[in-house]
Amino acid sequence: MKILLATYWAVPHLGGVWPYMLQLKEKLESLNHEVDLLGYGDEAGSYVNLVNKNQRINTDKLLPLLKSILNPSDYPEIYMNKLIEYTEFRRYLFELSTAYFGLESYDVIHTQDVISTISINRIRPPKAALVASLHGSVAHEIRLQLENIHKSPTSYMARKYYDQLEYAGASSAEYTVVANQWMKKILTDEFHVPSEKIEVFQYGYDADNFSHLLTKESEIKRPANKKVIMYSGRLVQVKGVEYLLDALGQLKEERQDWICWIAGEGDKLAELRLQCKVLGLEEDVIFLGNRNDIPSLLAQADIFVLPSIIENQPLSIIEAQLAGKAIIASDVGGLPEMIEHKVTGLLTPAEDIECLCKYLSKLLRKDSLRNRLGSAAKDWGLSHWSLDNAVNHTVEVYEKAITERRRSFND
Description:
The structure is a single chain. This protein is an alpha/beta fold. 46% of the residues lie in helices and 17% in strands. It contains 15 helices and 14 strands. An eight-stranded mixed beta sheet has the order 4-3-2-1-5-6-7-8. Strands 11-10-9-12-13-14 form a six-stranded parallel beta sheet, sandwiched between helices. Helix 10 (269-279) links the parallel strand 10 (258-263) and strand 11. The two termini are 24 Å apart.
């Protein structure tokens, strides 16, 4: 098969989607499939590129055409909310650029989000089957942002707009793949996506390669006399890092035998740094930025924390499990399907600073508990995140999608 892995998001980027695409590409190619990668080339959306072919289309060449068509006189609703305006132009630029590349040679197009799914469904040729993997609920994340970051008198319009995108993006492919029952329930119960369109199976992960990376050296070294608490991921609202910092502020009043590493970047970085200063944590919390040595850092850590408000199936938890770390995470989204409370980790209510502080203190105090949870997490992770099984399931879905696409055109 000739396969296109496509995403509306910029690639490469921080988060789990890009590593997922790279691992899937490598494994599919080992099975003699031909695979291309498509996405925006930067966060500004200045170009769309076929990454592995080093081909790009600059979107500034297309923007004047789009603005002349989607003008305020004919389409005033687009301009009533800045978030809608931003997304509408970005998705049509993505769609036009993809159309210029051409999709005629692909047997399967595998999109990684609702927006790329909608865009490519509108322009795909008759023979190309479409499979969508949804790595989270865009509509739910937007609702959270509309409460503060993008709050405006027309927020209600943005909510309805993104709800419609969620439905269309989850229902327009032949099959939509999700990683857990939580995400399936959202799509079927809330957005009324037909259940027969949804396939549920977990991501795979290259555990052997990750095990090798754990042994590599990092220039970051843990202090000799302190335990390391670690967070890795985007520094954005949905990740709830501010609640971790508040918990650390309480923890410092009780004990000082720890340091916290925060690896990642995002639009809340400046705010989080200021929070550390206010809490007196400037010497206790180290912001490491975007790193390419996460496995090496995890190997040195004692506790991994993910205090998310919304979460699907984060790569950071998979890596922490494979590294054998004691994990504390919020009991939201798909996390309870990844972590069994008090067996393979500890689950806290989202935004519960006191509970998070209590569990951090308990794991710092009890080496045996920390080691037991980490060992159980690793055993579960090694048995659960088989890359071979995940890719086999994916190929099966591709084949079903091709059959379904052909049947729909023959009827």
